[in-house]
Amino acid sequence: MLATLVDYGVFLGWGLIIGVLSSGARQSSFISPMLIGLFFLGPIVFYDLLCEYLLNGQSVGKIALNIRVVMLDGSQPGLGAYLLRWVLRIVESGAVLFGIVPIIVVAINGKGQRLGDIAAGTTVVKLKPAVSLNDVLTQPTPENYQVLFPDVRLLTDHDISVVRDVLRRGDVWAVSQAAERIREVTGITTTLGNHAFLHQIVTDYQFITSQ
Does 152 share its domain with 95? Predict the structure, then answer.
């Protein structure tokens, strides 16, 4: 909600700019009030979609609050996911029941998801300060290291990058979803907890690809 308030501040600033420019443009017969209205409303209508797509899941408000839109497994959403979130903002806007719909949905859902997130399979997470991967994810392995999960060969560098990003953020739900996705792709079964499992996956992959 705080991020949304910041974005509303952006809208207000844009409105002031358009107001100043239009005050001088009114003297021109080539610029109609309708055209001025389009210049004002166009960027606002498409603001969320363009920002989240072009700024890696963030708007100005989300950047200010250090939060970002991600898929439930921690990966980056595609254009389709951003479109679903954007379309359903109509139902979640302040014009519909004073904006109470997304508040209720987020409270009931328990996963930080509003209607658009549920439809798109996304959520909004808090970003943590970047830490050294050498400190927490890629500890040196001894020469006689034994790989616990050889099937990590089925993964790609992009998969491991997503896992590292999830571990770096430390979001419990994202860790759970990422671990489940890795199990589906590799067919690995283990009694390790999700966090320990993902750490082991990263270490095994690092060792195998370094040989």
Answer: no
